[in-house]
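[READ THE FOLD]
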Amino acid sequence: MRRLGVLLALAALAGCSPKQSSPVAAAARFNTDIPINEVMAHVMDPAADQFWAGMGTSYTVEGERDLSPKSEAEWKRVEDGAATVVLATNSLMLPGYARAPVADWNRHAKDVADVAIRAKAAVEEKDLAEMKVISEELDHACEACHKQFSPASAKPFTAIIPPPPRRN
């Protein structure tokens, strides 16, 4: 009986102690200092290009060349591109990047992410036929967003290129 009394007293004290904040409850601070057009230029576009580079045919004067991945490293690179597109869409939906109307912006980002998830799965299965279909879908999803939220309207960034050396 005495143990029960001690347990009840401890439970009562625990209920009176200040609540510990949950790490999930605390809002994360996201760094959105890099302008959106740079996020697109440095993350989204190269990632999509990585995926798109894994399919199709290149035609040159030397002849045609199949661009599909031939090695595990090439397959990984294509898959990395699709996965990065998915993750980049999460960044696009951060409060510092989302553009008005936010519901439309987030819908476009989700559409791109949904296609990129399917792209990643097709790469994992090494399904070139499905990758080609999804490639077109990814292009259309990106263009739908660009049509509403023109990349030309984003604040342009200037690459910092050192001046050529002076000649004396």
